[in-house]
Amino acid sequence: MFDNLQILTTAPVFNLQLLLNGISIAAIFALIAYGLGLVWGVTSVKNLSQGDMVMMGGYLAYLLHNHGVHPIVAIVPVAIIMFAFGWIIYRLIIKRVIELDLFTSLLATFGLAIVIQQALNLAFGPDVRTIKSGFGNYSFFDGTVDITQIRLIAIGLCIALAIAMVLFLRFSRMGQAIRATAQDPRAARVLGVDTDTVYALTFSLNAAICGAAGVLIAMVWVIAPFYGTAYSIRAFVIVTASGLGNLPGVIFIALALGVIEQYSGFILGAQFQQATIVLLLLAILIFRQLALVRHRRALQ
Amino acid sequence: MSKRNGALAQGLAAAAAIAAIALPPQAFAEDTIELGSAISITGKYSQEGKNAKDGYDFAVKKINEKGGVKVGGKTYKIEVKYYDDESTPARTAQLLERLISQDGIKFVLGPYGSGPTKAAAPVTEKYKIPMVEAEGASRSLFSQGYKYIFAALSTSEQYLSPVVDLAAELAQKNGKSPSSIKIGMAFENDPFSLDVRSGVMDRVKHYKMKVVIDDKMPRDLSDISATLTKVKALKPDILLFSGHTKGALTATRQMSEMGVNAKIIAITHCESADLVGKFGKAAEGIMCPTQWAETLKYKDPLFGTAMDFNKAFLAAHPDYKEVPYQVAQASAAVEIWADALHRAGKLDKEAARNALAKTDLDTFYGHIKFAPDGRNLTKPMVLRQIQNGKYIVVAPTKYAADPVVYPRVAPQ
Question: How far is B394 from chain A (nearest CA, A)?
C-alpha cells in the first residue's frame, strides 16, 4: 500500500493519469446525477430507474450502431427517442404517483427499473455489449499517460450539455417555469404555470440526458441489462452528497468521487474503490449534520 | 397443438408402460448397460446442455458401433436415460432421485454446469451411486469429501495456473530465474474467479514469484483504469484477469486504450466475450485458457486423435460449425465409464466406484486419472494465444501445436 503511495511521489506523472481517468469517469456520472437531481428537485420523485434508462440509451445506440450509425451521431436520435419514452412514462406512470407519498413513487420507479431490465434482457439477451467508437488515443510522456479521444469527447459533451441546461433553465420561459415549479408548485400554478407540462418536460429531459449518457457508457465501458443499478446508486450518492438543486455541487462532488475512486483503486486496490466512495458519503453526511446542529445552536 | 402433443405423449407413455410390463426388466438389462443423466435441455443452459448431451450420445454411438463394452466376459451395449432438469439445480436433484430410486440407474453421467452438479452430488452420494461428471468445474465440488463424484474436466483453480508454469518455463529458457517474475492480477470478487486466483497463488508460491498487483474487482465495477495505471507504474511481467465476459471485455479494451502491455497477458472467457471479433488487433497475443482444443496431440483407440474426434463429430453433426469443448469432455465421460465398467468386471455400483478411482486412461480429451477428491489433475488446462485473429494452442508446450509469441508485442 505504501509502496504504491511512494510511486505517486517519486513518479508524479502517474497522478496525471489518475486525474484524467477520474475526470472522464466523473463527467459521465455528473451528467446522470444532474438529471436525477433535476427530476428530484422539480417533481420530488426519486427516480430509481435512472441507471436503467441509461442502459436503455446504451442499447438504443448499440441497435443503431448495428445499422451503421456511428455512436457519436447516434446521441441525437437516442436522446430524442428517450425524450419521447420519458414523456410516455410520465403520462402513464409518474403523473399518477407524483402527488402521492414518497413510498409510492419509489415503488413505481423501482417497478419501472425491473421492467426496463427485463425488457432489455428479452430484447438483447443477458450478454455484455460494447460499441467500438473507432477513435484512437493520445499518449503523453512516453506512453506513461494515455487518454482516449472518446473520453475527451465524453468530457466535452458533458460540459456542453451542462452549460446548455444552465442556459435553458436560466433564460428560457420554460426554464423559468421549471425553476418556479421546483420552488413552489402551488404558487407556480396560481401564477399560471402549467405544472403538469413542466413535470412532463422535466422527466423527459432527464430521460434524454440518461440516453446520451448511455451512449457514452456503451463506448467507454460496457452495457448489460442488469448493470443499471450501479449507475443509479452512484447518481444517488452524488445528489445526496451535493444537496438538491445544486449544479456546481453535483459537478464538484462527481469530480471528487471520480478522482478519489481512482486514487483509492491505485493505492488500496480495486476492492476498496466502492467502500471508499460510501465512506466518503458517510463522512459528508455526518459533517453536514454537525454543521446543521451548530447552525441551529447559533440561532437559538 | 399442445393438446395433441399431450395426448401423443400420454399414448407413448402408456405404450412404454405396456412394453415394460411385457418385457421382464432382466431381459432388457441383459445386454445393455443403462447410464442416467439429468441434463439441461430447456432453460438458460439449454445450448450447453445440448452440447453435453450430443457429446454423451456421440460416444455411446461410437462405443456401440465398436461392439459395446465387455464386462466380465459378456458384451453390453450402452444406453443413456435422460431427463430435462430445465437448467434449475433443484430439479436436477429431484430427477437424480428419480433416476436412482425409481428407474434403478446405478451409473450416472453428470448434468451441465457447476450449479446443477452441486445439486446432484449430494444425491449420488446418499445412494452411493458413482457419477462421472464432465461439465461442473467449481472447486467447491471437490472439497466436501464426496466419494462418488469423478470429474473429467479441469477444475476452476486450474484455469490460469498453466500461465504461471509457462512463464516460469519461458524465463528459464531465457536464462532467468522464475523467482524474478513479477505478477499483476485482477480477479472479480466471485467464487469462480477467486478459485482461479487460488490456483494461481499456489503456483506463484511454488516458484517464489512476486505478486505486485493483486486487485479484486467488485461485481458491478466496469472500470479498471486505476488497476491499469498501477500496471504502468509497476510493470509486471505477467498480467492475469478473470471476471467473466465483462472482465474480459473491460480488460482488453482498457489495456489497449491505456497502452498497457506485459510479456504475457492471460484472460478467462475470451471466446464468450468474442475478443477477436470485438477488438481485432487489440486482442492479439492475449492468452486464453480452455479445457480442450482439437489441435492437441492427445489420442485413444476409440476416437483416434483429438482432430479425428473433431472431424467425426462434425461429420455426424452438420449443425455444428466447430466442436465446443463441452462436447469433447462429455464424450470423454462416457469413455471413462466404459473403461471403468470393463475393469470392474461386474455391473455393481461399488465395484464400479472402485474401478473409477483407479482409472488411468489416455483419451483424445487428455489423460484421465482421479485424485482422491475426484478431480482429474493429470489433464492440464490448455492455453491458446490469439495469433492473427485465431486461437492457437501454445501451452502446455508438450501438447502444443505452435510456438508461443513471447514477449507479447503491443498492438499498434
Answer: 28
Whether B185 and B225 share a structural domain = yes
Range of the domain at B244: 158-290+382-395
**Which chain B residue is nearest to residue A20, measuring alpha carbons?**
B225
Q: Which amino acid is at A118?
A: Q
d(CA B278, CA A219): 12
CB contact under 8 A, A271 and B257: no
Choose the closest CB to A132 out of B189, B258, B278: B278
Per-residue pLDDT of A13-25, as tens digits, reads 889 999 999 999 9
Residues 6+ positions from B82 with CB-CB distance below 8 Å: B36, B37, B38, B39, B41, B53
B168 and B242 part of one domain: yes
CA of A218: which chain B residue's CA is closest?
Answer: B222
B136 close to B146: Cβ distance less than 8 angstroms: no
- Could you read off the pLDDT of A254-280 as tens digits, one per residue? 999 999 999 999 998 888 888 888 898
CA distances from A78 to A1, A59, A120, A122, A294 (A): 43, 9, 15, 20, 47
Of the candidates A287, A202, A278, the residue with the CA atom closest to the CA atom of residue A233:
A278
Q: Do B246 and B329 have their domain in common?
A: no
User: What is the DSSP track for A84-123?
Assistant: HHHHHHIIIIIHHHTTS-HHHHHHHHHHHHHHHHHHHHHH
Length of chain B: 412
What is the SS3 assignment for A131? Answer: coil
Q: Which residues of A200-237 are buried (b: 16+ CB within 10 A; e: fewer)?
A: bbbbbbbbbbbbbbbbbbbbbbbbbbebbbbbbbbbbb
Q: Do residues B262 and B144 share a domain? A: no
